[in-house]
Amino acid sequence: MPDALRGRAPAKVNLVLEVLGAREDGFHEIDTIFQELELADEVAVTFGGPAGVRADGPFAAGTPTDPTNLAWRAAALLALRTGQSAESISIRLTKNIPPAGGLGGGASDAATVLRLLAGVWPGATDAILRQVGGEIGSDEGFFLVGGTARGTGRGEQVEPLSSLPPHDVVLFVPAFSMERKTARMFAALDQHAFDPGGIASRFAAESPQQIGSADVFNAFERVGFDLFPALASLWQDLEARTGEPVRLAGAGPTLFWIGPSGSGEAIARAAAGAGCTVIPTRTATVQ
Question: Three-state SS string across the chain, please?
């Protein structure tokens, strides 16, 4: 077994996120289009040392390093499923993805750990990886696939799609978040009419070659301003500075712009001075 395993854990945005209704299991039925980004955490798994998780990098603050960390939970659960031991595993996360921002960083870290361990643990089949990922959360299944994909069910049923051609993406990350963010966002949506559906299915059928922020749909925008009171002013400021629409990333509070390749640098420059961290990146494709 090698001394260390290393991999990238990319961020994502949801180009479409429809919430279709509440489910009897306590989750919500969604129909979403995931898009992988080039922005990524770096993950290293080593063996033979003290077990646990370490986090460094520009967005290490706010990343749990106790047993609640999703990457650690992934390692522990995969060990249980395959008859291995997680007692000597050490996970180091270099956090380039802002945590709790709607970009899927924690879920992506977990999926990357699953892929890395599957390369050295016999019995870690694709089916077991999907099962473990689904037990940890709803986004892990996408990160085991990557690229452009459609997610249904609670998001864990993933269908790969034709890759979106290269687009520039600019992320606008505010300093605020909240506890139990996603659960509270869904609870707020329960007070509104659910989406009728159809947007994600049309996207999947048409495989668009070029999209912009005006083409993005996110059901959470109906309640985001209520739950993040400072979000409206930031949103308005960014749209005034850039002259372009910006959208909510996942359950937020990160906002983002997407558009033609080569145009993101101008958007990032125009947003300089807004009350957020500005991160230019690009869409990624499955290699």
Answer: CCCEEEEEEEEEEEEEEEEEEECCCCCEEEEEEEEEEEEEEEEEEEECCCCEEEEECCCCCCCCCCCCCHHHHHHHHHHHHHCCCCCCEEEEEECCCCCCCCCCHHHHHHHHHHHHHHCCCCCCCHHHHHHHHHHHCCCHHHHCCCCEEEEECCCCEEEECCCCCCEEEEEEECCCCCCCHHHHHHHHHCCCCCCCCCHHHHHHHHCCCCCCHHHCEECCHHHHHHHCCCHHHHHHHHHHHHCCCCEECCCCCCEEEEEECCCHHHHHHHHCCCCCEEEEEEECCCC
State whether 135 and 175 are in the same domain. Answer: no
Mean pLDDT to the nearest integer, 201-206: 95
Q: Is 139 a catalytic residue?
A: yes
Catalytic entry in 12, 95, 181, 195? 12
Given 41, 139, 168, 195, the catalytic residue: 139
Q: What range does the domain containing 27 cover?
A: 4-160
Average pLDDT, the chain: 94
Say if 8 falls within a structural domain: yes
Dist CA 70 CA 109 (whole Å): 7
Q: Report the predicted TM-score, pTM, of the whole model to 2 decimal places.
A: 0.95
Distance between CA atoms of 277 and 270, rounded to whole angstroms? 13
Residues 155-164: what's their mean pLDDT?
95
In a domain? residue 287: no
